[in-house]
Amino acid sequence: MSEKTLRLALIGKDVSKSDSHKIHAFILREFGVDLAYEKLSIAPAELDDTMRYLLGDFDGFNVTIPYKRDVMEYLDEILDDAAAFGAVNTVVCATRRGYNTDGWGFLQMLKLHGVSVTDKKVLVLGAGGAGRSSAVVLKKAGAEVYLYQRRQQELEETCQELGVLAADNPEAGGYDIIINATGVGMHNTVGISPVSAAAFKGCSVAVDLIYKPTVSEFLRIAAELGLQTVSGGGMLFLQAYYADCYFLGRQADEQEAYNLYKKYLESEENI
Q1: What gap in Å lies between CA 213 and CA 232, rounded to an integer?
Q2: pLDDT at 270 (0 to 100)
Q3: What DSSP line would sit under 76-95, residue for residue?
Q4: CA–CA separation, 34 vs 236, rounded Å?
């Protein structure tokens, strides 16, 4: 290893199939930094011990479903987008500071695919960490944002907190863009869509934050209806790039991120 070696990790309920290690290794190698990386699939009861382990022994770590809100109580500061989203996906251990790079990665992915959200009616399915971050940045970008989840009381509270609107019935249609931020369609729900074809009435773009499978059932239905579809692989890479900038104390650059993503898509890691 070189003199610069980062010890990083990813925690979540099931991160066994995550490509994060490949992406971080690729980005950091481009920056001249070696990487030691662990993927930790943990149960809720293991979170205390895991956080002590990570904060004590690692340079930083990323957080995915379902712990993006739970980790906040272990940190000294919640900064930037993480404070607005109420969710953390990136932790710098030396400072015990939490950040969220999902929103930046999400918007950059949409930009890369030529999707404009300004003055568009957008439905976000799912009010977890990814859904919250997507809803906030979409609103900031000038979209009329509707959020949906099945638990009505929690939905109303979240919408009030984030300043977005609650969707009563996603199957009613009438949205320009629909974002799947539920996680339905991966792991043991592969082949399942959170909505039926009826939800896409009047819609022109469908975005799934899932990246495995590349074509989820949600996107398959949308493509069959002739919609533009965007899978979450770009967001995964771009938010990882932004997280690595936090780990290294480096200034993020949009063009650098795009160039690295293009290079990654052509690399052996992207297999």
Answers
A1: 10
A2: 65
A3: SEE-HHHHHHT---EEETTT
A4: 20
Supply φ then ψ for residue 198, to 5 degrees: -60, -35
Tally helices (H) and strands (E) across the chain. Answer: 9, 12
3-state secondary structure of 215: coil
Active-site residue, selected from the candidate residues 22, 68, 120, 139: 68
Q: Is the pLDDT of residue 4 over 80?
A: no
Q: Give the pLDDT of residue 137.
A: 94
Neighbours of 169 (CB within 10 A): 9
Reply yes or no on whether the pLDDT at 55 is more than 80: yes
The answer to whether 270 touches 234, Cβ cutoff 8 Å, is: no
- Judge whether residue 136 has pLDDT over 90: yes
Structure token pair of residue 33: 């930094």
Rounded CA gap, 83 and 78, in Å? 6
User: What phi-psi label fits residue 119: left (phi over 0), alpha (psi between -120 and 50 degrees) or beta?
Assistant: left
**Residues 38 and 16: beta-carbon distance below 8 Å:** no
Task: Decide if 68 is catalytic.
Answer: yes
- Picking from 195, 191, 63, the residue whose alpha carbon sits closest to that of residue 126 is 195
For the entire predicted model, the pTM comes to 0.88
User: Which residue do the tokens 């481009």 mark?
Assistant: 30
